[in-house]
Structures are given as structure tokens and as C-alpha cells.
Design a protein that fits this description.
9 helices, single chain, alpha/beta, binds adenosine-5'-diphosphate, binds magnesium ion, globular, Rossmann fold, 238 residues
């Protein structure tokens, strides 16, 4: 059984799309899959509860499909920084509370078990007014599983990628791989940017899991459309 925490260089880097494609690919290879979004900010009412599109997509590609809340224990309404969204609902977030909320989801034994972060690596869970500031990185460190880094290709992405990767290494994380994801249709000198990133990551012994092309207007719930993303990826080893 393989477990990974999926982080990204930023919000909208492609964490959800890549996670869904990895789950889809694994299932096509006969593996059981489970996707978890511990905290989601940005929900709408569906079936009488607040649901988030990322979590719905991860659930869609989970062969071990459970009730919605098992795939997304903390669903916050506003699509803003999670700690602010929580405060707006008079809720507070902490690492220990999130670990408790995720306990049943973390106990699920899938061949491929993916946990998607929110935003980038250092997104806050709280503002520190009750003690030390805690971030989603602190949560991922407690999970103590390898990390997959999704790099959303755009101007500035090299800096974001290196900052994130350096922080992952400084936090003692095993980085199972990185993905170059073409979030823009026509990024200037994309190939040169990817070439630089390939060299930097390979010098740090971090494998590239693939280069995902831009897929304009993709509907990731359509598995045939997601095939194009899955085809560009290799499953992490180990
Ligand atoms: N390679 C790509 N081609 C086209 N659209 C993409 C690509 N990667 C991501 N997107 C789109 O960009 C948006 C943000 O991607 P998403 O996976 O939700 O990012 P994150 O989870 O990091 O916030 C989504 O609408 C997604 O479909
Ligand atoms: Mg997402």
C-alpha cells in the first residue's frame, strides 16, 4: 500500500487534477484507490451538506468510495484561506483536531491512498491566537508520508518550485516525485523552464512523475478526458 501527500506550488497548481489522474491510472492498473481532502475551503450545498469540488473529484476516482465526509472531514463554505473561512464559521482548526477528524479516512487501506493539501505547503490552519501557529505542513509532517509536488507552470514557477522543494527537504520530507503541469495554454519558454526544473530536481534525486500538457476546458469527472492527464503520468514508486 502506498500513501502520499500531494502539495503544490500554489493554489490552482493542479493538485486535484493530478491526484485524480493518479487515482484513475492506479485503478486502471487494478489497484484500489482512496482520495482524501482533509480541509476544503469553497463548498456548495449538495445532498443537504456542504461539499467541495476537489473532494467530490477525489471521491469520484476512489475505488473505495465512502460517504462524502470520509473524503472531506472539514468542509468550509468560503473559498478563502482556510483559517479565515473557519473563523467566519466560528470554528477553529488545529493539527490534532484534523488528525482526529481524518482518523477513519487514514485507516482506509487502499493500494494508492492520496491526501491532497490545500493551497501550498505552508497554508495556515490557524492564526496562532490560541498558541503556536499551525500550518497544513505540520499536519503533513504528522502523517509522515512521502510528498508529491505539483508545479503549476507559469512565469515565476521555478522560484515557487524551488522554495517549496527546499522547504519540504528542510522539513525532512521524502519527496516521492514532482509533476510539471501546464496550467496555461501558451506559457512562454515553457520547455526551457521545465528543462531547468528537471535538472534541479534530478540533482536532488527527486524523480519527475510526468509533464502534463495543457488540456483546455478539461472536465476531470469525465474519465476519458482524464485519460490524457493519466497518460502523461507515472505512478510514484514504493
Ligand atoms: N494541465 C491542465 N490543463 C488544463 N487545465 C488545467 C490543467 N491543470 C489544472 N487545470 C485546471 O486548473 C484549475 C485548477 O486546477 P486544480 O487541479 O483544481 O488545482 P489545485 O488543486 O492545485 O488548486 C482546474 O479548473 C483544473 O481543471
Ligand atoms: Mg485542489
Amino acid at each position: 500500500m502506498a500513501r502520499y501527500f500531494v502539495t503544490g506550488t500554489d493554489t490552482d497548481a493542479g493538485k486535484t487534477l493530478v491526484s485524480a489522474a493518479l487515482l484513475h491510472k492506479a485503478h486502471q492498473q487494478g489497484l484500489s484507490t482512496f482520495g482524501l481532502k482533509p480541509v476544503a475551503a469553497g463548498c456548495e450545498q449538495r445532498s443537504g451538506e456542504w461539499q467541495n469540488d476537489d473532494a467530490r473529484l477525489l471521491r469520484h476516482y476512489s475505488s473505495l468510495q465512502h460517504a462524502y465526509h470520509v473524503h472531506n472531514p472539514v468542509a468550509l463554505q468560503a473559498a478563502i484561506a482556510p483559517h479565515i473561512a473557519a473563523a467566519q464559521e466560528q470554528r477553529s482548526l488545529s493539527v490534532s483536531q484534523l488528525l482526529n477528524a481524518c482518523q477513519p479516512s487514514l485507516e482506509i487501506n487502499a493500494d494508492l491512498h492520496l491526501t491532497e493539501g490545500a493551497g501550498g505547503w505552508l497554508v495556515p490552519l490557524n492564526d496562532g491566537s490560541q498558541g503556536d501557529i499551525e500550518t497544513l505542513a505540520d499536519f503533513a509532517i504528522r502523517l509522515d508520508i512521502p510528498v508529491i509536488l505539483v508545479v503549476g507552470l507559469k512565469l515565476g514557477a521555478i522560484n515557487h518550485a524551488l522554495l517549496t522543494a527546499q522547504m519540504l527537504l528542510a522539513h525532512g520530507r521524502q519527496v516521492a516525485g514532482w509533476v510539471a503541469n501546464a496550467i496555461q495554454p501558451d506559457m512562454q519558454v515553457q520547455a526551457e523552464n521545465v528543462q531547468f526544473l528537471r535538472r534541479w530536481f534530478s540533482q536532488n534525486n527527486i524523480p519527475c512523475l510526468g509533464e502534463v500538457p495543457h488540456c483546455a476546458g478539461i472536465d476531470a469527472f469525465d474519465s476519458q478526458q482524464l485519460d490524457a492527464v493519466a497518460a502523461a503520468l507515472t505512478l510514484p514508486e514504493g
